Amino acid sequence: MELSDHxxxxxxxxxxxxxxxxxxxxxxxxxxxxxxNDLAEQAGIASSYTHTSVVNWTRRxxxxxxxxxxxxxxxxxxxxxxxxxxxxxxxxxxxxxADRVGLDFHRDVHQAVHTATRFWSTVHRRTFVTSAFAVGAxxxxxxxxxxxxxxxxxxxxxxxxxxxxxLEALWTAAAAAQRSDSKYGGGTRTASTAxxxxxxxxxxxxxxxxxxxxxxxxxxxxxELARVAGWSALDMGHHALAQRHFIQALRMARAAGRLDIxxxxxxxxxxxxxxRGYPDEAVDMVQGAYDRARHVAAPRVLAFAKLIEARAHAxxxxxxxxxxxxxxxxxxxxxxxxxxxxxxxxxxYYTPARMAADAVEIHRDLGLPVAALRWNNRATPMSTNDxxxxxxxxxxxxxxxxxxxxxxxxxxxHGQRAVIILSRVRSTRATDYLAGVVRAMAPWHRDPRVIDxxxxxxxxxxxxxxxxxI
Length: 470
Hints:
single chain, mainly alpha, two-stranded parallel ribbon
């Protein structure tokens, strides 16, 4: 493909916004044109822009054909040390609806960084919160990652240099956000800082100068931070926002050349797909994630993928496939717990206790309450202080399993404990689970104990929805 200096459209009004940013960046017209040509060449596009082209863009208001406006914005972002959107330089591209921001998964890493930058710098917009989850939006990202899960080179140029402290800051922020999310839900201030950190710290680093080795570490840390941001959004019921974070996390994992991180992100995407009611699609996603990473990822990463596959099969009512995937997860987890190899810290949350808790839910979903309760008896207790939300969710699942077993007394006991625990949590997912317990108790709705639990559950749900983030 070749792009000449002919514009996509011609305007008579000078582009003062672009002129101001060029002046602020300190770049000459020659340097800007040369850097745009470099990015175009890296994207497989032949171009020959000169200082005259820049004059045409600024003084005559000419707008080159896409994706050149995105490249101009990216070039200016480097010296400015912050994200720049094509709209900010007066070159908003036709057909780039705000509703699609964050859904693209570009083959070219430079365009991918631009897409991530645009999304994370505008993630506060309400449209991302109110948009609907679309399972079809995962088709292209999943296909492209499965086809080419790693990029060849992560080096890039910029004004500032990425340092070791910068990389450590990304992982520290991701770990802190995940701990807060696990304890008190995705609505806490600490959990929600992951998205802000992406905008304020990760974006400038993605436009800084680094070698291939440092670039891969940078992309890896950014991928994990985006995954945590996605999970926190999911936990608060913002599924379209979570979907965009996950897509960008998967793209960053590919840029990092990290199959294990990509597998983990894609497994999270599959779990979201299950929760939104598409278990059939989730089976394909998580099986692909597992197969792509099975020879390189740590056993615990693969074990988690098999667990989510079991949950997807349960959602389809396929007990045999669910049992097979769960058995594989258990075996891999045993290898992880007895092995001597290093495992990434970001998967340490997947423990035998977590597996058993999910196994209870899997068998509950299959309508097998006796098996569900048997799995619960095998599980070791989880710390309420460290895993507040997880323990509360586990109580709701146990309550509904006991109801399937026609044991109202045990269901009430676990339901009451769930209300107490989840009253401390900021999580839409947790309130949905509480509401599920109340619905499951409908056959006993005249029982005074059920009436009382229903009242307390609704109070907890209302408090969680209206409370201020911790």
